[in-house]
Predict the structure of Magnesium-transporting ATPase, P-type 1.
Amino acid sequence: MWAPDPPLDKRSPAAPAPGAAARGRPDGGSLASVRAALAGYAGEPALAVLRRWDTSPRGLDENEAQDRLLRFGEGADGSARDGGTRRPVRAAAAPFVVVLICLGLVSALVGDARGTVLICCLAVLSGALRFRQEARSDRAAAALRTMATTTATVLRRAAPGADPVPREVPAEQVVPGDIVLLGPGDVVPADLRLLSSSGLTVDQSALTGESLPAGKHATWAEGPLPAPPAGGPEPDVFGHPRLCLTGTTVVAGTGTAVAVATGTATYVGATGDLPARPPETAFDRGVRAVSWGLVAAMLTALPLVLAAGGALRGDWSRALPTAVAVAVAVTPEMLPLVATALLVRGAAGLSRRQVIVKRLPAVHNLGAMDTLCVDKTGTLTERHLRPACHLDPDGGADPGVLRWARLNALWSVELSGSPDGDAVDEALLRDAGDLAGFEGADVIPFDFTRRRATVLLRPDDPRPRSRAAHVLVTKGAVEDVLDVCVRVRTRDGEVALDAAERARLLAMGDRWAADGVRLLAVATARRAAPARSLSPADERDLTLVGFVGFRDRPDPAAAAAVRALARRGVDLIMITGDHPEVARRVCRDAGLPVSRVVLGRDLAGLDDAELARLAGPATVFARVAPAQKARVVRALRRAGRTVGYLGDGVNDAPALRAADVGVTVAGAAGPARAAADVILARGGLGALEQAVVAGRRTFANTVKYIKIALTSNVGNVASILAAAATLPFPAMPPLQVLVRNVCFDLSQLALVHDRVDESQILRPRTFDHLDLARFVACVGPVGALFDLAVFGLLWRVPAAHGPGGQQLVHTGWFVANLTAQGLAMLLLRSRGRGAPRAAWPVLAAAAAPALCGLLLPFSPLAATLDLRPLPLAALPPLAVVVTGYLAATIGVRALYQRLFGRWL
Ligand SMILES: Nc1ncnc2c1ncn2[C@@H]1O[C@H](COP(=O)(O)OP(=O)(O)OP(=O)(O)O)[C@@H](O)[C@H]1O
Ligand SMILES: [Mg+2]
């Protein structure tokens, strides 16, 4: 329906030239200009906006849309909460780049041109590698995301003269001038100016933090206005009823709107919040702490090396390359790359099991999660409500009540579009039969804060419409409907709803709830034909006519999944908007212990610390509003827990966003899908347990890699320092150290295929710095001692071989070090007896560094790397030393486990 526009409203701010910020500025405008432009669009008559964008209510034709896509660029998928794939890379990369830059400066200052060039090459090389990996992982993440992509419905015409047809397009392909059709669950794909609407309610919490959905109206006359848009320099674009902004989601109702800005030209684009950055994960923090720890170690070692070599011996030409070699040795250049590869592999494995990961770091968070908050319907129950009873206020069966409830459901759905198939309304309308006699005139859609849905019905009456009395019908949670009632229709006639009557009715609701029946109250009132749209203020002076009750069977798989998660160390906490007794009953059926039930209204008096203390594993939160669900999650996170949230409703979206990892199911409401990090395409809690295991496996392999890489690097630093102190010529050239690191770390990529010990995935784990430091401190020196043994062996070579002897010593170290550490990986990767055997890619990867070491001196790169083929006679003694090193590693591993009771 096309609503003619009223004249320009006096309250709206004077329209600046709206196109200035949004049009022709695909690179985004300043926030103030975007805001002003939006306010301008909102204030202008619809026809003027359409003309400005050279479009009409019939939409764009396909060619024009393509042209505009090229001109303005792709918009943004409002559901993407990404930025995550690059973060693990950045977290680790930044400190190392800083170090390389510092080293380059030092080299330049002391006039070492070769060193400066070399370091610049290292920086460029590591940058290029990182760039490549970022691009790859972003592509992988995007491919995973397409499985959960959001779409938008636009009116398009095949040719300029053709009729418009609604077409579903990927959200990012909406262009300025497109006519967008909005319905419940849709994620708003662009900044839109409404043209017409019916009962449209939009959840803006993702952007404003405001938990209450906002009503949106195309025309000023429609419905009561929320606060008028503030004039002056900062118009309130979110509060404006005619504007729907990118990234918000439609909770209820329908609308038609014209897109006025897309992509970076949108409001969120201009704030730089697109996509919104999720909170940093514990793992990111861990990797960054390790990285800076290494930097600190390096910065301590560097002056010492320079002081020792340069100041004491006065030999700066040797001290500087040694210092650079130390810096290179300690830097795990490939850490960002391997860590991301592990995440990509974990996410890909999950997608084969129908678990879609929208944000890569969520894989680790799944594994680290120690507390899982769940809603009730569709998580612990089947989400298939069955009518259980229909009662008058005295408790007797009354089909009349059922009919009112059904009329309410029918017209709620018809007029507002039920939020993603509301389970209550679905249940009421199943086998509803003939509901003739009334026609819906208006609706106040259900929301989770009022917990009521109201419709205004007009009788199908031959009398002139204006005179026929209308009926207001409200259904909802018992206490919330009683709040707006003044009378009760009993068998003996209508009585006033006093305190005693209220207590009696609430007790009735409690009794049914204890039996697992969710009771909804139904109330009606006669009203004159309305002169204006309904508002929540009209929900008053009603008469309670009875109750309808529903049962939802417990999900048969839930109890087993609850037990499995408990075995894996995940505490479950139910947070529901439903009745406390229904919640208690469902918990009992699912085998969840309940020691206390906390009500939403009691949360206001608690601070976060008290709330977190209350939220133990046997606590149930009932009658909580959407914002309160999120508050419980945040309080738990602040108390140091890693919190997951599993829910499927519009009302779960704020909590899904607040959690470390938000999980939803395929059939969930649009806003829930948009807010979640992980979507379970099949199965509920059971599938989540599988995902938790997969997350822990990825985490375990990542920690394994970090331990192995650091152990090897720290060992190498020690040996380079020892070599510098003892050898009569320069220790290893920095370039060789770099190539060694790259060869070794690339082989470690095979760890993505490694099997994991059950003991490592039994409990949730987070990054443990102390454990890492202890491991590196105990195992690293073994490598250093081995290197010293190699130097001991090669001690006399330079004298025997003249000037080429130095190269032989370096090559000997290069080959032996790569061989030994490659093979040692097989020992370090497991705790030994009883642990799962290495998969074949891991076995191959263990041999790969040795092969590199042996072959590189024969390759064309040998000259650049300063490597020389080793004489055959050198190999047996080196093999003996390598064997000795492996034996020592086995010994240290056994001792370490005896001392500390664990290995990885
Ligand atoms: N369509 C509806 N019309 C009227 N009232 C409703 C409707 N849907 C739900 N309610 C009321 O609102 C209350 C809260 O809704 P609901 O139980 O779905 O919340 P929730 O937090 O999503 O719960 P769950 O944990 O079961 O998913 C319900 O107990 C019911 O009383
Ligand atoms: Mg729900």
